[in-house]
Structure formats: C-alpha cells, structure tokens
Amino acid sequence: MKRTYFILLVFSLLLLINTSCNDNDKINDKGELETVTYDAGTKTFKLTYSSGYTETINAIINNQVDPPVATATLEDGSIVTFENANNSGKAEIITSDVISDYKYVNGWIYDNMSVYYLWNDKLSKSPNYSLNPEDFFESILYKYNKTSNPDGDRFSWIQEDYTELLGNLSGVASHEIGFEYILVGTDATLKQYYALVLYAMHGTDAELKGINRGRFITKINGQNITADNYKNLFGGTGTKKLSMADFVYNETEKRYILQSSGDVTINMHNYFAENPIYLDTIYTVANNKIGYLVYNFFARDNGDKSNNYDKELISKLSNFKSKGVNEMVLDLRYNSGGAVSSAIALASALVKNRSTKNVLTTSQYNSILHNALIKEEGANYNKDYFIDKIIGTTVAIPEMNLPRLYVLTSGWTASASEFIINGLKPYMDVILIGETTYGKNVGSITIYEDDDPKNKWGMQPIVVKFANSLGFSDFTAGFTPDYEIDEFENLYLYSFGDTNDPLLGKALSLITGQTSFTRSASAISTPFRSTQINEKISVDSREKSHRFEMYDDIRGESIRNIMTK
Fold it and tell me: CA-based angle 240:242:248, to the nearest 5?
C-alpha cells in the first residue's frame, strides 16, 4: 500500500512539473509585443504578441488631465498609453529604449526650467520623467486658468527641432500655404467651415495666383473644411486645389452676394521667410499728412543676423518723416508679437519728445535670475530705454515726434504689440481702434543645446514679465479699444489701405474730421456672420505658428551666458 502511495506521489509531482514547464514555455515563447488595445469599459489593456498569445492587464487612469489618460508599465520597462481613457481603441507602445531617451531630455528640460522659468517655484516636485518630452514639458507648467489662476502660463512651448523653432521666430516656415486666414462656420452647427483670407504673404504662390484678402476658400482638394481636418488640408507639401468664392454685386437684388468663383491651384512652400512689413502709404488730407503702416510681426531679420527687417522698417519711418508725416496709424490687428528689440526700435521712432534717458519698460524675472543679473549688471539691469540707433548697428532711428498714435487692434494683437501700446502710454495718447487685444504681458527666451546629438529639442519658456515706466503690467485681459469696431461684422474685408476699411476709416475720420463712407451692411448678403467665426481654431492656428511669441532677444543670450558660467 505504501508503495502505491509513493508511486502516485511521484507521478503527481512529475505531472505538476511538466505542466509548470509548459506554462513557462508558453510565457517565454509569446514573442514580440505587436498590438495593445484599451477597453474603456473594463479599464484594461489587452496585449497581443507575435505568437498569438494574449494577456490583459489593468490600466492606471490619470484623471488630473482632460481627457484622462490610461497607462500601464510592462515588466521590461516599456509603457503602453491611450490618450483618452473615456474611449476604447489602439494604444501606443513606448519601448524602454525610447523611455531612456525621454528621461535624458526631460532631465534637461526640468533642470533648465528650474533656473529660467518665471514661475520656477511652482514646478511640479515629482514629475513623470517617462513621458514624451512635449507631454512632460506641459505637465510641469504653472498653467493658466481663467478663474482659478488668471496670472498663470498660457504661452510657454517646446519643439522637437530647435532649428525649426529658431526659424519660426524669424517668420521662417516650412510647409507654408502662403496666406493667413480665419475659419467661418457655414451655419450655426459649425460642422463645416469656409476659410476667409486675411492676407496673402508677399512673394508666395498664393499671392501670385490671386488669393487676396477678403476671398473665401470653400474646399481644399475637393474636401469640405472641418475642425478635424483643417490642419491637414492647410498643411503638407505639393499643390493645393482651392475652391474659391467671392462677393459679387447682383444688379437685380442691388446687393453683394457670395458666389463660387472657380478653382485655383497653388504650390505649397517648403521654405518661406515672411517679411513683417506689409504696407506703408501716406494720405494727404488738408493740412494732415497721415502715415499708415501695416506691420504683421516683430523680427530683426529672417535669422541671418543682418537686421534687414529692422533696417527696412526704420527706412519706411524715415521716409514718413522726410515727407512731413504729422499723424500716424499703426496697423497691428494681425500682429501677435516677436522680438523685443524690434519693438523697442519702433517705439523709439514713434514716441513724442524722445529721450534716451526715459524708460520704455522694466523687466521682472524669477529670484534666481534677478539675483544673478543684478550682481552682474547692476541695479538698472532690467530697464529698457528709448534708443536712437538700431541695436547692434549705427543706423539712426528717426524722431517722428508724433502728437499721438492711432493703433488698429484685434484679438490677435498681442505681446510685443501690447509692449508698444503699454510702453508708449505714459508719454503720449495712444488711441486704440478695433477690438480688445489678447493680453500678453510676458516674454520668453530660447533654450537649446547645439552640440548634443542626443537632444535636438528647443524650448521657449516664459521667463520675464514686462511693465511700463509707471510700473503698470496688469493687462492680461487685454487693452480695451477706445473705439470698438468688429471688422468681421458682415465678413466683407477691404484691402489694406482702402479708406473704406472700417478700422482705417475710423482713424482717418478722427484725424481729419471727415466721415469715411463704408459699404452698408444691408447691401451685403452672407450665409453667416461674425458670430460663426471659430475663435478657438483661429487663435490656435496662430499660436501654433508661434505668432503669439514675445522673445527677449535683448537679454536672452546674456542670461544664458551668465547662468552657465
């Protein structure tokens, strides 16, 4: 009997060992991880391997972001993630090697943000270094909230290729379609949009083919424009077939009606450098010589360090002065920022009774930078004065000595444009015409490593807050216009310089006392109104092109040099 029990015991052990080995073989032979799907109902990931073996693991849901993100860490250190935990779908697999690269870059991001970031004392103390660098950067920001944190950060950004970042700041773009636009919903549902052209950039194929201000694009490559596809439709390479529509006067109905006007094929630009000076002209009315300048962003040059844009700007203003211009209309309605040095040069030409001893702005940095800069450069290190020459050159800046300044504004008028408005207000009357400006009182510097093959990222963190000579900097809600005018009231846009343009016409009437005659809204028939403009998309598209940037090119390089000694 004992012998029988012994034989049964041995047999059971052998069976157990054999089964265990088979299970281990199954696990060891499951092969490479091929796909991962996320199930929102069970909050789990299903892992499928090359052998056909599958397994299910629980997801960790991060509800601190919107939408919530689902993640899980695998045994080999890889991470699977799904961007919206409320939905189901195919998840992303991030291998351990990639995560190691992420951690290297993220360490560089956090170290630099700890030194330069305006809100460095607000950085997360325990960030997730395994995130993609762009997500990591976003996760550590002291973020703006209209209600709970109105003074927070809306503007810091990061880019995978620092050379593209530097180009963007100088108006250099790849995959450029050649015109600025806004999207207008074709009806109240906002499921389909038309693009309304704000202006064609000089020197582009779009300008050559007649894609002018005020024209509508109803389709691209035969596709309707939606909130989901507009980025792809307006981006990329090659050619684009634009279906156009224009206002045409109907003699029978005695009004302007939007009508289809055929297709136009244009070439995308793989590389394009936009000149910020769009139009300059002089109006002579009675004893008034009125200078009008359309200036679309602030940049010294296209990145070649020639100062050519600044030199051209000052040449235009010198011409105004030589022709006896005694009033000035500065059109900044589409100008969302740029180089501080260019803003200082422009303000110095326009200010009344210029003195290079007068302060234009003062700068506020975090305590680390403040202590280092005051030690290196003295108590007045943070003051910017009016100048009489373009910085770094011998080119003289004219004294126009204007009695006042008229500025045309919109919701895109931001940062360096507001720097001009705020800086000049203590010295002269600045009359705003149009809509409330965006409200950006802070600036950034560029941080990158040009000799690190493992890290090509560049970032543009907010590092400085600007105030005028009276200490005023509280305009995060924007500057309210003295004369509020919605240029998109009936979606009919006049060419720049046309005196029927409602913003320019108002400025000219204030200067001359003569009323400008504009086309009656009742004579224009459109299937939509300005309430159907997608403000979020319109602003986001300009933010993504980094037109909302104000970068501190006065102290940026010296700050980095001081902090890396």
Answer: 160
